[in-house]
Amino acid sequence: MGAAEPLRSVLWVKRQRCAVSLDPARALLRWWPSPGPGAAVPGAGACSVPVAEIIAVEETDSHGKPQGSGKWQKMEPPFAFTVHCVRRARRRRWKCEQVTFCGADEQLCHLWLQTLREQLDKLTCRPKRLLVFINPFGGKGQGLRIYERKVAPLFALAAISTEVIVTERANHAKEALYEMSVDSYDGVVCVGGDGMFSEVLHGLIGRTQRMAGVDQNEPRAALVPCPLRIGIIPAGSTDCVCYSTVGVNDPKTSALHIIVGDSLPMDVSSVHHHGALLRYSVSLLGYGFYGDIVKDSEKKRWMGLIRYDFSGLKTFLSHHCYEGTVSFLPAQHTVGSPRDGKPCRAGCFVCRQSKQQLEEEQKRSLYGLEGSEEVEEWKVICGKFLAINAANMSCACPRSPRGLSPAAHLGDGSSDLILIRKCSRFNFLRFLVRHTNQGDQFDFTFVEVYRIKKFQFVSKQVEDEDSDLGERGKQGLRQICSQHPSCCCSAVSSSWNCDGEVLSGSAVEVRVHCQLVQLFARGIEDGP
């Protein structure tokens, strides 16, 4: 077989005589029934698997059992080898499937083994060594068990070496990434929920900026993209990031995406307050309703996962609204809009095209061909809001399969800013229900949505602090009003829900950094 010539043979698969073909040019392994002499033409029963989705190839007996340690040795007749590959199952799940090929010629089987392994060795995007952080307390406390039973065997099969660190306290992973050398790793894997992912994210971004000499506390600083990819093994309460990037919360599916070396660029938002970095956000940054929920639920951790339902109902009945000013810079570089009905999917055209247009826009600004940010047109909206949400992704989860912003994109350099103005409880309930069905959740007069690349928020409380006249009287009136939530009066201030973590700050500045990190994922796949 030449460098680009297909390898073709007749082998046996599950007691069925099959023609088997490996086309290096197309990187595709195919087999189909061939009952007669020679290799028949592929028909309806043909099967195929891309080489990129082959996990491993090993010597086995005719029943698929491994032969010794995997080193070259004399086979026992009938001679066989097994291909471990990805099989797509229902609801976007991936499974590890085994296909055993048998033949009477030992040299032929060795040739197939050698050729397939050479093809796998050419896949340089695949990780060889991973750093794994496991949160043993998150979710239902099953992180370590999930990793040992479902993930570790797949990594071993793919010959991926790992260093495992079981976290012992909050920010353990973040601190470790700041201190240890990560040059020998091809990626970092976190086993846990969104909180665990956030720790790894902050550790990697912070380390990268420190090494590059970038001041993270400067809101206008151009952050340096992280060189290491992040893998997420879902084992938390919500696992929103995993669900929005893979389409399912399944540990084996996520592990297989890591093994095949998938790569998905993702935007990150920086949140600053008075010239200091507060936090990074990749999914939801919410003020008002969602901020109140997460703040109240933190006080009820003893209730377990049901605390989110309890705090959600309590916050809904309180019906607080918050007065303030939102200023934002529209994302002119994007090719989509929040209401175009085009969700972010694998190989997303919107993300690729928006990234290119953003780079061209930045080059024109750099060379003075167009105005810089100082002269770009900011829009200002004042009022009373039940919620202010900035979604970098759809924020989908099993309870809300389409998410808070179904058409938000992972890597287009923008965020969807959703403003829910003061309205009745009934109308707000209608809005919330839309998140669980196929209705357009933005089709309300009290809801506004914008695709932006920067925004600022200042609460009325902070604005009033600039004036000394009547401040005590205003504060007293607001406190009296907040004790009667049924009238939907303005409360003093809320907190921010930053990817599930409580963030204080009634005056924030948020900026989207295009494709700052990369995940071991390929985006949600549609179709069979």
Automatic annotation (TrEMBL):
Keyword ATP-binding attributed: yes
Keywords per UniProt: ATP-binding, Calcium, Cell membrane, Cytoplasm, Kinase, Lipid metabolism, Magnesium, Membrane, Nucleotide-binding, Phosphoprotein, Transferase
Main location (coarse class): membrane
Recorded GO CC terms: cytoplasm; plasma membrane
InterPro entries membership: ATP-NAD_kinase_N, CERK_C, CERK_PH, Diacylglycerol_kinase_cat_dom, Lipid_Phosphate_FormReg, NAD/diacylglycerol_kinase_sf
Membrane topology: Peripheral membrane protein
GO MF entries: ATP binding; ceramide kinase activity
GO biological process: ceramide metabolic process
Keyword 4Fe-4S in annotation: no
Domain DAGKc: 125-275
Cofactor: Mg(2+); Ca(2+)
EC number: 2.7.1.138
Location within or outside the cell: Cell membrane; Cytoplasm
Gene3D superfamilies associated with the record: 2.60.200.40, Probable inorganic polyphosphate/atp-NAD kinase, domain 1 (3.40.50.10330)
Catalytic activity, reaction form: N-hexadecanoylsphing-4-enine + ATP = N-(hexadecanoyl)-sphing-4-enine-1-phosphate + ADP + H(+); an N-acylsphing-4-enine + ATP = an N-acylsphing-4-enine 1-phosphate + ADP + H(+); N-(hexanoyl)sphing-4-enine + ATP = N-hexanoylsphing-4-enine 1-phosphate + ADP + H(+); N-(acetyl)-sphing-4-enine + ATP = N-(acetyl)-sphing-4-enine-1-phosphate + ADP + H(+)
Pfam families: CERK_C, DAGK_cat, PH_CERK
Function (record text): Catalyzes specifically the phosphorylation of ceramide to form ceramide 1-phosphate. Acts efficiently on natural and analog ceramides (C6, C8, C16 ceramides, and C8-dihydroceramide), to a lesser extent on C2-ceramide and C6-dihydroceramide, but not on other lipids, such as various sphingosines. Shows a greater preference for D-erythro isomer of ceramides. Binds phosphoinositides.
Name this polypeptide is given: Ceramide kinase
